[in-house]
From TrEMBL:
Note on cofactor: Binds 1 zinc ion.
PROSITE patterns the UniProt entry points to: CYT_DCMP_DEAMINASES_1, CYT_DCMP_DEAMINASES_2
Pathway the protein contributes to: Cofactor biosynthesis; riboflavin biosynthesis; 5-amino-6-(D-ribitylamino)uracil from GTP: step 2/4; Cofactor biosynthesis; riboflavin biosynthesis; 5-amino-6-(D-ribitylamino)uracil from GTP: step 3/4
Protein purpose: Converts 2,5-diamino-6-(ribosylamino)-4(3h)-pyrimidinone 5'-phosphate into 5-amino-6-(ribosylamino)-2,4(1h,3h)-pyrimidinedione 5'-phosphate.
Residues holding Zn(2+): H54, C79, C88
Protein name: Riboflavin biosynthesis protein RibD
Family listed: In the C-terminal section; belongs to the HTP reductase family. In the N-terminal section; belongs to the cytidine and deoxycytidylate deaminase family.
GO molecular function, one term: diaminohydroxyphosphoribosylaminopyrimidine deaminase activity
Catalytic activity: 5-amino-6-(5-phospho-D-ribitylamino)uracil + NADP(+) = 5-amino-6-(5-phospho-D-ribosylamino)uracil + NADPH + H(+); 2,5-diamino-6-hydroxy-4-(5-phosphoribosylamino)-pyrimidine + H2O + H(+) = 5-amino-6-(5-phospho-D-ribosylamino)uracil + NH4(+)
Xref: PANTHER family: 2,5-DIAMINO-6-RIBOSYLAMINO-4(3H)-PYRIMIDINONE 5'-PHOSPHATE REDUCTASE, DIHYDROFOLATE REDUCTASE FAMILY PROTEIN (AFU_ORTHOLOGUE AFUA_8G06820)
């Protein structure tokens, strides 16, 4: 049996369901599932915050006995291993569904094709790899954590039309973008497990690094790349450490007394490898992957941004361009090598662009 246009419609709906908890399900992927029979949606499910329950059992439970003979649409291969919950593949078999329209094979070696194989062995008609590009986009963080031992990274950079992220050394902080772009930034933050910045951004902007949207209560982990453990105790990040989890990654030569001072006010510190005097970005991301994180939003500033792009670690890049040029010398938003790599079709693809009020945005994905 082939995949029909109607199948694609339901599968895209399942992808949209999975995105409801994107950024909140780590270390599990944000999966969506639909149970459909005779054109009627009988059950909907998506991976819940914290990673459990999984999408498939929720959708099947909602459908109940009506699931027998139905089609299940699921955005990633159902798990086949016993973890904190039984295998989703077994729940699907027990439900009596006749057909499964599935997404990508899960690269997790505990499943890795075994979920689909188990369904076929039970006599269920199985379609796989439906809308693979959209599936990879939805589950990129999970895939990279399993295959490259790091989370996916979205890099956000705000720049003036003449290419600057900040003014000269003693200039006051620039307000580059307007309300619409700033709101989009908060939405993007909410779709990630962590927000990561470097010390240059902390010292220059004194950011809060929080999601400030109506109705949003979950805050991503705040991660500061701080080689010498220089985070000021009077910074807004330090002041809010009791309310928002904060992790400072510092180099092996950081002053132990500074780490102790930060830990006393509720900030977690951890040692990390250093490269050329800065926190090694791959080592930092691998540390976060070991913590179970799958999605990181970097607002780390020009230096961190250029290094992420240069090292092939920026999986998505969102550039917000404000309406007013700086008109004088300032800090470049991206180095020339980073701009060249971003414009290289062998490295990045432009996937979206548009207007946000008076500002504009461009969205790239790593090839």
């Amino acid at each position: 049996m082939t995949v029909s246009p109607q199948d694609l419609r339901y599968f895209r709906a399942a992808l949209a369901l999975g995105a409801r908890e994107l950024g909140a399900t780590a270390e599990n992927p944000a999966v969506g599932a639909l149970v459909v029979k005779d054109g009627v949606v009988l059950g909907r499910g998506w991976t819940q915050a914290g990673g459990r329950p999984h999408a498939e059992p929720l959708a099947l439970a909602q459908a109940g006995e009506a699931a027998r003979g139905a089609t299940l649409y699921v955005t990633l291969e159902p798990c086949a291993h016993h973890g904190k919950t039984p295998p989703c593949a077994d729940a699907i078999i027990a439900s009596g569904v006749a057909r499964v329209v599935g997404g990508l094979t899960d690269p997790d070696p505990r499943t890795a094709g075994q979920g689909f194989a188990r369904l076929r062995a039970a006599g269920i008609d199985v379609e796989t790899d439906v809308l693979p590009d959209e599936g990879r986009r939805a589950h990129r963080g999970h895939i990279l954590r399993v295959t490259e031992n790091r989370p996916m990274v979205t890099l956000k950079i705000a720049r003036t039309p003449d290419g600057f992220a900040a003014g000269a050394e003693h200039d006051r902080r620039l307000a580059i973008t307007g309300l619409a772009a700033n709101l989009r930034t908060h939405v993007l933050r909410s779709l990630h497990d962590a927000i990561m910045v470097g010390m240059g951004t902390v010292l220059g902007d004194d950011p809060l690094m929080t999601v400030r949207l109506p109705g949003v209560t979950r805050q991503p982990l705040r991660v500061v790349l701080d080689t010498r453990c220089d985070l000021p105790p009077r910074s807004r990040i330090a002041a809010g450490a009791g309310e928002v989890k904060t992790l400072v990654l510092c180099g092996p030569g950081a002053d132990p007394s500074r780490r102790e001072a930060l830990e006393k006010i509720g900030i977690e510190t951890a040692g990390c490898a250093v490269s050329e005097g800065r926190i090694d970005l791959r080592a930092a991301l691998e540390f976060l992957a070991r913590r179970g994180l799958t999605r990181v939003f970097s607002e780390g500033g020009p230096q961190v941004g250029a290094n992420l792009i240069g090292q092939g670690l920026a999986d998505e890049v969102v550039l917000f361009t404000g309406e007013r040029p700086l008109g004088r010398t300032g800090v470049e938003a991206l180095s020339e090598p980073a701009r060249q790599k971003l414009d290289d079709p062998a490295c990045y693809e432009l996937v979206a662009q548009g207007l946000l009020g008076a500002d504009s945005y461009t969205h790239y994905e790593r090839i």
